[in-house]
Amino acid sequence: MDKGNYQKLNQYHVIFLINGGIAGLGILTLPNDLSSMGFNQWLVPLILGLVANLALFPMIKLCSNYPKNNLYEINEKLLGPLLGKIINILITGYAIIALSRVLRGYLTLIQTTLLPQKSIIGPLIILLLLSAYVVKGGIKSVARFAILGFFLTAWTIYFSQWPIINGDVRNFLPLFNFTRNDFLYAFHRGYFSMLGYEIILFYFPYIMDQKRAFKHASIGIWITMFLYWAVCASSVVYFSIWQMSHLRYPVLSLLKSIQLSFVERVENFFIALWVFLILSTACLLLWLAQKGIKSILKKPTDLSLYGVLPIIFLMIKGPIPNRYEVFLYENLTIYGGYFLNLWAIILLFLHYIKQTREGKEAA
Amino acid sequence: MRKLLIFILLLSITVSSGCARRVRGPKLESMGLVGVIGFDLAEDGRTEMTVAMPQFPYAFEEEIQFFSATVDLTHEALVEFTKKSDKLLKYSHLMVVLFSEKYAREKGLIQPILDMYRNCDIGDDVYIAVTKASAKEIMMMDLPHHPTLVRYLSFLLEPREETAFNPFATIHDFVRRSTSNVYDPVVPYIEKQKDKSIKISKIAIFENDKMIDTITPEEANILESLTNRKKLSAIKLETEEKDDLGNPLYVMIEFIQSNVEMSSNKNLDSPKVKVKLNFVGTLMGYTGDRNLDKPEGLLALEDLLNKNMEKQVFDLLNKLKKLKVDPIGVGQEFRMYHRGKWNKDLWREAIPNIEYNIEVDSKFLNTGTID
Predict the structure, then answer these.
(1) What is the ipTM, given to two decimal places?
(2) B336, B339, B347: best to mutate for the A interface, most A CBs within 10 A
């Protein structure tokens, strides 16, 4: 339909790409990550949303200055070919690690709850092949899949009435009863749940309405933050503080409270439904990784997509020692996210410096 | 040519999968689905676990198979029983867990309950009850007039309006209350009756996870109304008035809807709590001779009722104060306004000092279908 048309993402694609990139693995463990705040943890998604919105601003500003280039090309333009390539390799590495973390986290959950005796190789291969299939269709296909995933899973919010009715609403008070350290710790652990919006740096050239991209991306962020807030509020009402800090998958326990007259134990169904959210995040990150490899090798080849898949498979199933795994998955992904957010600001400075220098030379 | 190759590849994969040697998953008939688990205290202080498994198909004389073993860890039992049974034991259909009173008082319930909470097979809404005799005795008793054990126990302990005095404790409720920094758990207490049935005779009060006392169902009804349960079971009240023969007058109220408002003075050093209990019900029985046609008669009866209920609420709250437990959650009214760290010990120290100011307001909707 829009073959040959470079700019193909309309506003709904942008909104749900942001949403699909953010909502994924983080939401399953969110109340546990924020448990240092105790009963005030519902404040944290709102603050995370605010920070994400603020961090989005320099990104959009940077991209508006280079409307036809994604971040890989901007890197090379501003930093020169060699340094730019090194940064691009680092960013591609971050995308691969983040992708492995998302898939591995979800498959661990599946193995714990639904399929205790089976190995995760089968589901892993299927998820990887599915992601590759979606990514083969380009960024528009990823966006459409994110829209599909959102509508297939967002109605779960209807079931939050069970935890709220069976819980104690008085848990919300006292407000703002936490120390600064509690808050910073919860923010750091919850930050991973918020990552995913910075990928707009890479698909910005494809957006049709670039002038209103900031508004659309903000809508996407706040839709996701509303869902996160609803999950945190339900868990504050339903659980005790001990439960929130010790349950590894609080959303699973929230779903266990649902009692329907025609079926028991629906939480297994919803955990399986979650795969759509995981896949939309995984597809977006896979798209990012293959774009990175294409820009490093400068040769358009199919291998950029299919070559990433074995790497991810080996990272998840491969023999990495345990303490490196923790460092790789828990720390590197968050630091990579911090880096990308700050990187936009640094590049913006470099851009202004370059502009003034060119202005002086022309004058 | 490429399409042909892909087709041949897929066909060979499909056909050759039959040659694979794989472990077959169990059929439903070969699974032993445990319905009830009972925990007793063995002589050497270890746990004796008994499980009840309904049999499918009903080709056996006994419909329920029992296994019993003395174990140190809860999940050790599964291994022990699998050695004796021809079926694969699964906990996914667990409905009820019973603990003997001795076990609840001496050992505490938190360890086995957390073991079950940890297991993904076991749902969060499994009912808990404390038994007077050993749990094994209750599970193995002969029930000629009732459905099979699993069905009987699960329907007995299920939420019903007539048994609204039952706190309907599930595993999630128990974990939440015993790990909470305000609440204490409350669990139904069942006893074997002479007519070969099981009765919820009392409600057990816990401190953290150990049982300390029991209260009667009438007191438990009031307890549930104070925890803001909206629909209560029927209340039979003995009024102070006496009739001509010297027997006390009784009033019976049914279809009660209750509402409680609690407020505190927010001061932990000298805590004061104001409790306002409203309830609306239908008058179903009265052994006096007041004329209830006129509104004055009903109002006078309502006043009598209020005084009686206030005394009952006061007695119950005093009893809980002496036991230093808080199953109602009065502590929430203080925790909501407390800045800084709050823990359960802080609250427990303050419980005996609470001064209650109780007000009951009752209303009769009607007197049934006749006057």
Answers:
(1) 0.85
(2) B336
